[in-house]
């Protein structure tokens, strides 16, 4: 090689270096901040995810076999080679729900993540349109304008998808039914802003006159696991439309899995529901509307003065009541508590001008709030007071699922996909709830707390010598606590794998739930429950 060749190579290197500097200058940004000047560049070739701790949850799903069985049971029969795979459909759906999204369109925000799908064994995150079409295939709309053959085919597909979700939900809750538990039945409103099927104007406490859907929900009380959920039109009241599903759920359970109590608000305190529960000898506790007959009962019991203190500022007294339309006399328990805050009432004078009248909540004028419960159970008055107070936890569950998960969204024009999505959210919520209790058995953590602690984090993926490595960075201030919680998770998974190394994955999930329950019970407070209260063992430490 001559001298000229060396000179030529030097020129080439200089040109290449100059081009690189120009490219760098073009892509690197100088950003002035209150903390000073920073040089910022896009990392085009980086492989990273904001769901850095997804790998630990994916391990939980892998050891338990939950995601694999959900995937294997999915009733899809795509014939097109261009159709998305089942794992890509369900994986995208799972990631969207876990991420706290409420709309299918928000899936777009995940599509730049190349790490999360690889962790779940996916080839890619599909588009929101592909996800909608896949769900329409799983739960086809029962259209009226189609042939009888097409209508029958759609109904058959919907039945398959319903059975598929029935099995998955039952698996996620089955082990919790082997200890004494309480079934909470309730209905919540999902606001709508379009012309969806079932968008009707019904009972709507937050925005009267706004069309809505109703979510009829059945809970495993205190542990906040969703036994089932059904989306219906906005006019579907709990009393009329919740009873068939409630009865079906109870009939499916073997006697030893039946709830110690079915609990509900005043929508369930009617002859139809109570008679059905009595027919199958199911103990219940329902709230009664304060009709004229109920108010007369309160007045009569108030005059008798047989009130008993049942802790936390509550007094209780019981009696017998038979309202018009009832088939017989039933036990009722009246609870009362002092109203201690300042109150004001608006009244109109003779000049039709409103006046504000302040009500004195002093010892001279005691103000009481009352609630009347009807039951066929023989628990003590003290237990009744505690059972009523525990009922409020159900509302916290509704709030979490609507505002922190996807029950307030994932809306399509047809009820079939709305139903399917609500049940999928419930399923993933149940999986995550068990996972979080494994990490933190002392108390339940809502998604607003658990996601930043157990899902978030920046993870960079590297490949070397055939091995995949994740470099995880936590930005949460509770880093040491998070690492301890992850250690709890891995200890539980290792325990299950070590105790049954040869057993199939189907046996891992029951063993894992039993392990989680044992940790919850070990962490519960030593304070005894009120005498006569049914022992909802898992309720302790549920937060």
Structural summary, described in words:
The chain has 543 residues and is α+β, with helices and mostly antiparallel strands. Among the domains are: 38 residues; 89 residues, no CATH class. The chain contains 16 helices and 16 strands. The strands form four sheets. It has a nine-stranded mixed beta sheet with strand order 6-5-4-7-8-14-11-10-9, with helices on both faces. Strands 3-15-16 form a three-stranded antiparallel beta sheet, with no helix packed on it. Helix 2 runs parallel beside helix 15 and helix 7 runs parallel beside helix 13.
**Proportion in β-strands:** 15-25%
Q: Can you summarize the main beta sheet?
A: 9 strands, mixed
- Mean of residue pLDDT? 85
Stretches where pLDDT is under 50 for at least 5 consecutive residues are 535-543
Question: How would you sum up the global shape?
Answer: globular
As a percent range, the share of helical residues equals 40-55%
Radius of gyration equals: 29 Å
N- to C-terminal distance? 79 Å
Structural class per helix/strand content? alpha+beta
Total count of helical runs of at least 4 residues = 16
Order of adjacent strands in the largest pleated sheet: 6-5-4-7-8-14-11-10-9
Q: How many DSSP-defined strands?
A: 16
């Amino acid at each position: 090689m001559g001298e000229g060749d060396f000179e030529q190579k030097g020129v080439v290197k200089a040109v290449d270096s100059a081009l690189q500097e120009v490219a760098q200058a073009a892509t690197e940004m100088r950003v002035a901040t209150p903390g000073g000047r920073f040089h910022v560049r896009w990392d085009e070739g980086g492989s990273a995810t904001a769901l850095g701790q997804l790998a630990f949850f994916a391990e939980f799903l892998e050891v338990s076999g939950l995601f694999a069985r959900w995937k294997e049971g999915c009733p899809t029969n795509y014939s097109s080679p261009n159709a998305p795979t089942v794992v890509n459909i369900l994986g995208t759906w799972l990631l969207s729900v876990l991420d706290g999204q409420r709309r299918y369109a928000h899936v777009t925000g995940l599509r730049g993540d190349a790490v999360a799908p690889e962790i779940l064994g996916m080839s890619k995150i599909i588009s929101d349109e592909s996800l909608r079409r896949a769900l329409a295939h799983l739960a086809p709309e029962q259209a009226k304008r189609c042939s009888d053959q097409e209508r029958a085919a759609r109904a058959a597909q919907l039945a398959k998808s319903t059975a598929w979700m029935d099995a998955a939900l039952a698996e996620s809750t089955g082990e919790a039914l082997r200890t004494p538990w309480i079934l909470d039945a309730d209905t919540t409103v999902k606001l709508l802003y379009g012309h969806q099927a079932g968008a009707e104007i019904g009972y709507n406490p937050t925005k009267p006159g706004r069309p809505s859907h109703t979510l009829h929900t059945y809970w495993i009380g205190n542990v906040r696991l969703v036994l089932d959920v059904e989306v219906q039109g906005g006019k579907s009241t709990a009393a009329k439309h919740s009873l068939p599903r409630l009865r079906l759920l109870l009939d499916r359970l073997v006697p030893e899995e039946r709830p110690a109590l079915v609990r509900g608000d005043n929508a369930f305190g009617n002859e139809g529901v109570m008679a059905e529960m009595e027919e199958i000898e199911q103990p219940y506790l329902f709230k009664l509307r304060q009709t004229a007959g109920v108010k007369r009962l309160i007045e009569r019991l108030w005059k008798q003065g047989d009130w008993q203190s049942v802790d936390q500022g509550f007094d209780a007294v019981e009696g017998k009541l038979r309202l018009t339309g009832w088939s017989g006399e039933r036990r009722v328990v009246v609870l009362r508590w002092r109203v201690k805050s300042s109150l004001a009432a608006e009244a109109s004078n003779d000049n039709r001008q409103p006046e504000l009248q302040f009500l004195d909540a002093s010892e001279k004028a005691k103000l009481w709030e009352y609630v009347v419960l009807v039951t066929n159970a023989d628990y003590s008055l003290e237990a009744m007071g505690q059972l009523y107070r525990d009922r409020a936890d159900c509302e916290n569950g509704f709030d979490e699922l609507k505002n922190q998960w996807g029950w307030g969204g994932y809306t399509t024009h047809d009820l079939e996909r709305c139903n399917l999505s609500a049940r999928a959210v419930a399923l993933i919520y149940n999986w995550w709830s068990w996972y979080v209790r494994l990490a933190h058995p002392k108390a339940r953590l809502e998604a607003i707390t658990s996601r930043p602690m157990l899902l978030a984090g920046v993870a960079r993926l590297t490949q070397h010598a055939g091995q995949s490595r994740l470099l995880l960075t936590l930005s949460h201030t509770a880093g040491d606590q998070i690492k301890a919680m992850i250690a709890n998770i891995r200890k539980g998974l290792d325990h299950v794998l070590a105790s049954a190394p040869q057993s199939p994955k189907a046996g891992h999930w029951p063993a894992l739930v039993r392990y989680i329950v044992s940790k919850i019970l070990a962490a519960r407070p030593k304070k005894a429950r009120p005498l006569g209260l049914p022992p909802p063992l898992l309720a302790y430490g549920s937060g």
